[in-house]
Amino acid sequence: MPTSYKKVDVKRLLECLCSKTGESLDYYGLGQISEIVSGSISHKYLYDNLYRKTQTGSGDDEIRLAPNKVDELTRFLGYQNFSSFLTSIKMPLDPVLKSLEGSYYSYVRKSDNIGTLLCSPVCIEEIENQVILKLRGPNWEYVGKLKLVDGCLFCTMRSEESKKSFHHVYKVGKGGFPEVLMGLFTGVSTANNPIAGRCVLIKQAEQFDKLQNQKMSIAEMDGSQNQEYKKLATYFKTFEDNNLQINKPVGFDIDDLIP
User: Fold this and answer.
1) Could you tell me the superkingdom of the organism this chain comes from (predicted)?
2) Closest Cα partner for 218 from 136, 121, 113?
3) CB under 8 Å to 185, separation ≥6 — which residues?
4) Handedness of CA 36, 131, 68, 64 (dihedral sign)
5) CA end-to-end distance (rounded Å), the chain
6) Measured between alpha carbons, how far is 256 from 131 in angstroms, rounded to an integer?
7) What span, in angstroms and rounded, lies between the C-alpha atoms of 11 and 25?
8) Which residues of the chain have pLDDT under 50?
9) Nearest alpha carbon to residue 30 among 48, 54, 12
């Protein structure tokens, strides 16, 4: 059953298709786009049903199109459907959030006195007009939505497998395109105890799927010729400056405050 769409919204869809593919908004360019999108989207459909019908009249005028074909085009652009595409157009993301897209290494100091850094791959990407942070641990993957408030990033990451959550807060400022983000985390340890500490995100040139989980000795990093490792070692050197944990509860009364 055909559905009515505003011409101005269909024009935006065509413009975004041209932007993504690098093709021109004309007969030839739409032919190229139909080959790139493939599926059920023909050259004739793009040119006759979308392009030509939007070239006359008011932008508020409506045209009737097959919703499955329109949604196929919006999925090619990375949206679940036409409705989510319109939301992204009418409520654009903050440019600072957009600037964070890419791959990173996350560094936190392990909650013991040995002096070990836990290094985890992180991907920040836009998905349906939201900026999502994905952290791949050695056993589980954590995913959460980034929010920007007063120059700080907030993210509660959750693992569906372990049902555990970690909350991260990073200082980002207003300039955008940071190479290093410093923040704090709170969460629960593998022994199910509350923990907190400092964390660092460092932008990487490699793709997310190429990054590897690592356990790194702070002492060895401090003696390395790698200047980034040396600075990380200095930052995370002492337990007291980087990690917080509670006393082990026994009676869950006031006496637990004194170890």
Assistant:
1) Bacteria
2) 113
3) 108, 166, 167, 168, 169, 196, 197, 198, 199
4) negative
5) 70
6) 41
7) 10
8) none
9) 48
